[in-house]
Amino acid sequence: MNATAHADSPVMDIDLARLAGNWRTVRGRYTGNDLGAVVKCNAYGLGLEPVVNTLSAQGCLQYWALGYDEACRVRALAPAAEVFILNGLRGASARDCHIQRLIPVLNDLDEIAQARRAGALTVAVALDTGLGRLGLRPEAVARLAAQDLSPLRVRAWITQPSSFSRPESPDRLNPHDRFLALIAPLPAASRSLAISASVFACPGHHLDMARVGSALYGVDTTPSRTLPLKPVASVHAPVLRVADLPAGAEIGYDQQFRCPAPMRIATLGIGYAHGLPYALMNRGAVYFGPHRAPIVGGISMGLTSVDVSGLPPRLTAPGQWAEVFGEQQRLETLADIAGLPANALLSATAAGCGRRYHALHPEQPLASRLSESLP
Ligand SMILES: *Cc1c(COP(=O)(O)O)cnc(C)c1O
């Protein structure tokens, strides 16, 4: 496939060298023992195989997948790594986990009982320290402490912090203290609390194992948006048409936008079917080089209009590309405007756009650095 084959639809470029760079940045900050990569949901949409291969080459030896099938794919890509299944035994049998050497994260007493009946198995156990989503509630932990866990081998106790912005809030009952209090009566195993935001926060709370996703993909989940991460994914959409519209001209269904003055409007080949949020109707902008082009009218299934009045015509002509997010505009910025978590915008556009990978070694000729995959 060559570049012109994509000229009517958007492309996500994924920079694997930056993925590797973000891994090294996180590695440099994390003070615990085991740094694991969260690759759930097809590595946040970016593609399991290129992501796992890149991280394994950086020395990653722990992966966290969402379900059994995804974990099996990681197992095949990284035969020596520890592979955890966040969804536990919901989509898998304990026997299959044993055969594939996968570590299910058990989320309640029933699952633990089910695993014990199946025989010896290495597991992780999740505790609920306030997120109220999955994991053993404090009452269940107390009952677990009174139980014999054999023949299970508990590799780790894990919990998901309930705040991105304050992973180690100064509250007396912050997730770290709550977690340590909860596991105090339980047998010794690795303790896993830290997620992306935690790694850049209080080093005293890193504990033994980290589960990091967003930071590796260059997504800053903290409110300050100051983490030293490089964006990994960028999305560009092609210009399909440019038109000079008179004052009063309407753009979009049901007069979603009416030109207050004569305007030059570029129609882009990207829409909500490619993951561009409908909430960007008359909000936000794309970029042509450093030039901002506001979105006007609604977001259609495959088209979006932007105001390119006054922009250099050579940058906005049909066949040129607009940056939707990437270097000029961070993913996080556009997601904020759309009222979405940055990872929601990342995974939606990754699923909706053609993906193009830029390999680790820039010295390789361009043709062999690009490999393409359709959604
Ligand atoms: C998604 C997820 C993570 C990763 O969180 P990031 O903020 O993306 O680093 C860690 N642990 C669990 C249980 C998760 O579901």
Automatic annotation (TrEMBL):
<keyword id="KW-0413">Isomerase</keyword>
<protein>
    <submittedName>
        <fullName>Alanine racemase</fullName>
        <ecNumber>5.1.1.1</ecNumber>
    </submittedName>
</protein>
<dbReference type="InterPro" id="IPR009006">
    <property type="entry name" value="Ala_racemase/Decarboxylase_C"/>
</dbReference>
<dbReference type="InterPro" id="IPR011079">
    <property type="entry name" value="Ala_racemase_C"/>
</dbReference>
<dbReference type="Pfam" id="PF01168">
    <property type="entry name" value="Ala_racemase_N"/>
</dbReference>
<dbReference type="Pfam" id="PF00842">
    <property type="entry name" value="Ala_racemase_C"/>
</dbReference>
<keyword id="KW-0663">Pyridoxal phosphate</keyword>
<feature type="domain" description="Alanine racemase C-terminal">
    <location>
        <begin position="232"/>
        <end position="358"/>
    </location>
</feature>
<dbReference type="InterPro" id="IPR029066">
    <property type="entry name" value="PLP-binding_barrel"/>
</dbReference>
<dbReference type="GO" id="GO:0008784">
    <property type="term" value="F:alanine racemase activity"/>
</dbReference>
<dbReference type="InterPro" id="IPR001608">
    <property type="entry name" value="Ala_racemase_N"/>
</dbReference>
<dbReference type="InterPro" id="IPR000821">
    <property type="entry name" value="Ala_racemase"/>
</dbReference>
